[in-house]
Amino acid sequence: MRLGNLPVPKEAVEVIEEQDISELYPPQEEAIKAGALDGKNLVLASPTASGKTLIAELCAIKHVTEQDGKVIYLTPLRALASEKYREFKKYSRLRKRSGTRVRVAISTGDYDSSDPWLEAADIIITTNEKTDSLLRHKARWMGDVTLVIADEVHVLNDVDRGPTLEVILTRLLEFNPKAQILALSATVRNAEEIAEWLKAGSITTEWRPIKLVEGVCLHNTAEFNDGSSIKIGGDYGDSVLNLVAYTVKQNGQALVFAETRKKAVSYAKKIANAVKKLLSRPEKRSLKTVSDRILAAGERTRVSDLLAKLVQLGVAFHHAGLSASHRKVVEDAFRAGKIKVTAATPTLAYGVNLPARMVIISSYKRYVPGYGRYPISVLDFKQMSGRAGRPRYDNVGEALLIASTSDEQDYLMESYVFSKPEKLWSKLAVERVLRSHVLASIASGFAHSEQGLYDFFEKTFYAYQYGSKNIRPIVAKILEFLYKEGMVNLDGKRLFATDFGRRISELYIDPLSGVIIRDGLYNRADSLTDLSFLHMVCHTPDVAPKYYPRRREMDGLNVFVGAHRGEFMFEVPEEWTDSVVYEEFLGEVKCAFVLESWINEVSEDNIIERFSVQSGDLFRLTETVKWLLYASHELCRLFGHKDLLAKTSALERRVKSGIKAELLPLVGLRGIGRVRGRALFNAGFRTIKSLKHASIGQLTDIPMIGPQVAKKIKEQVGGLVRSDEWERLRREVGEGQKQISEY
Ligand code: ADP
Questions:
Q1: Low-confidence residues of the chain: pLDDT under 50
Q2: What is the residue with the minimal CA distance to atom 5 of ligand 1?
Q3: CA dihedral 409, 413, 415, 416 (to 10 degrees)
Q4: Crossing angle for the helix pair 615-638 and 324-335, nearest 10 degrees?
Q5: Looking at residue 653, what is its pLDDT?
Q6: What CA–CA distance (Å, rounded) separates 250 from 307?
Q7: Atom 23 (ligand 1): residue with closest C-alpha?
């Protein structure tokens, strides 16, 4: 089927053709035939890179340009939202019937806003969580949505992220019964069941633009499911290394999945030794640039130094401990073919698209902290193996598991390669996750009675799969909790949310966290310090998972608890009465201790050394805690703790930037993070006013403040600058170099 024959505006076809697309892929053709462009609801389950996004794009354009419609595109991750935004942005050139241009918007941040500006957007790319919060804030435009695109709908199976997706889909469909729904999914066994739930048609295909062969490698032989096999060299006495060398020698790239971060790093080191011999001079030169980029992005730590060193040798590691900026450099350089091999944890397979010719799954076990090692699911295996084969670069993608005996080889062939992925199951009925959705239903006025609540939850995928009776007792129990804690109340038979309940729902935190913060602010510690607030928020279930204190850290943490006993908002549990509770408490204390170090300007490298907490983990913790401190601030307002308003607000900003209070005035400037802020402060510039009076020369004399940053500072703070100095600065900085990273 030709793109040009589709009933979509020819300008849209032109935009798509610019990407060298003229014929539809088979799953795309099926989707069109099934009525995707005629407003039919559809679940499209097909492998990664089979072109699902294009179908979503065509539908979206049709809605916006021909029907004055409004489109919401849901993704499970912020990184994916950014990726999709870039893809949809190209349609901003098109015009609607009214003559105005198509407006594409992305909204992923700030969970305490209804983002009224989105009312003017035609295509809104967002995350499931943000949509949930927008619904709670009763964003008016939600009722105008005519097309809901739900990407990665297999996330329904995920304990942490599934329930939110399920609730927002139920809600959106209830809200806009006439809206079209397009759900995109990896190939799963029960796509039809999801389709029935969504009152949609379903298309399931295994089609991929590049052939995929899957198999198992034993010693020096890899056997594939199509009956073929390859012999690989045996130089390294390790199948993974041999496979990697084999692939790189043939100008291919490899992705190695390892069970843990530690193993990913150790593989990367070993692989680098093998790969470095295979690099050409120009390749080494371009890798040096990538390596420099890593060193320049964010704070330097032992982890980023090691990454930079390995990248020079053509190899990277990739896991959630890396900062987002380092991960991005690795992803871009891998896509550009500069990095030959990336050793990653399985989370990579669930994030951004990073295909490689050869995917090696070094272990079929996965380590779950606190529980041990488990065999991965077939779904996990398929998600990883599906990354094999780069469109436009490879003729075939190869995915291999590694076996050490022939029995194991048979087992792996049987259990993974020739197995179908498991069914998806709703994870909604977990009290921890359902709590917040029950409150939101009442607080946002979606349900006005107990029966109204049941009616809503009976429309969910959970009720569809397990029957509506099963969810009632959990909802009833949660309702009792919310009533007891004063978040909801009854007026006759009418259920309504109290001010407390409404605010908690809007703040997008777990109701239990709301109760903990409310009680903490009321009880207060004997001696109220930064630690009191940091521990209070780390005590909430929204900080999850907590850092797991290691054996060798226990003594230090015990001493820390002893020294700060009077600073906790809650009673310290007795070590000897309940060791599990005490250990959990130590986990919270460890989080608070890490944060306290962070806001006292301990370097990231030091935090890695002292707590084994890496930059990526630290960032995620600060993001959550920042939000909880904001929520605490809002609750101080609600409950009249005026004396704590300034404290919670300052702490929130300090956690955001990792600074002592004295740097607060400085880090408000763009381009000034904690390192440059400290440098300015130490040089005597402690206020905006002092910067206003500073000469350019004085600023550029400070370490880390080059002409570019000095110019930026001056542009922001104002004040007089001698014209010859300004001219010199402009010459030094040059045009086109305006962007500076925060430091
Ligand atoms: P999915 O959403 O299924 O993971 P994508 O939509 O991201 O897959 O498509 C993967 C790649 O294939 C993209 O680079 C896209 O531009 C390209 N592509 C999509 N449809 C076609 C087509 N009909 N012909 C050629 N390339 C296509």
A1: 735-743
A2: 51
A3: 120
A4: 140
A5: 96
A6: 24
A7: 24
Q: Ligand 1 centroid to 87 CA: how many Å?
A: 11
**Contact status, residue 366 vs residue 384, Cβ threshold 8 Å:** no
Measure the CA–CA gap between 686 and 700, rounded to whole angstroms.
16
- Confirm or reject: Cβ of 163 under 6 Å from ligand 1: no
Distances (CA, A) of 285 to 136, 213, 311, 312: 52, 34, 11, 8
Say which residues have a Cβ less than 8 Å from residue 481's Cβ, sequence separation at least 6: 435, 511
- Read off the pLDDT of residues 295-311 as tens digits, 9 standing for 90 and up: 988 889 999 999 999 99
CB 527, CB 518: distance < 8 Å: no
Report pTM. 0.91
CA dihedral of 468, 471, 472, 477, whole degrees rounded to 10: 180
Q: What atom of ligand 1 comes closest to residue 51's alpha carbon?
A: 6
Task: Tell me if 181 CB under 6 Å of ligand 1.
Answer: no
Residue 190 CA to ligand 1 center (angstroms) comes to 24
3-class secondary-structure state, position 359: strand
Q: Under a CB-based contact definition with an 8 Å cutoff, are residues 102 and 91 in contact?
A: yes
Task: Give pLDDT, residue 52.
Answer: 94
Q: Which of 8, 54, 205, 392 to mutate to test the pocket of ligand 1 (most atoms within 8 A of CB)?
A: 54
Q: How many CB atoms lie within 10 A of CB 699?
A: 21
The DSSP call for residue 602 is: -
* Ligand 1 pocket check for 389: Cβ under 6 Å: no
The β-bridge partners of 95 are 101
Ligand 1 within 6 A of 704 CB? no
Please give the pLDDT value at position 213. 97
Burial class (CB in 10 A: 0-12, 13-18, 19+), 458: middle
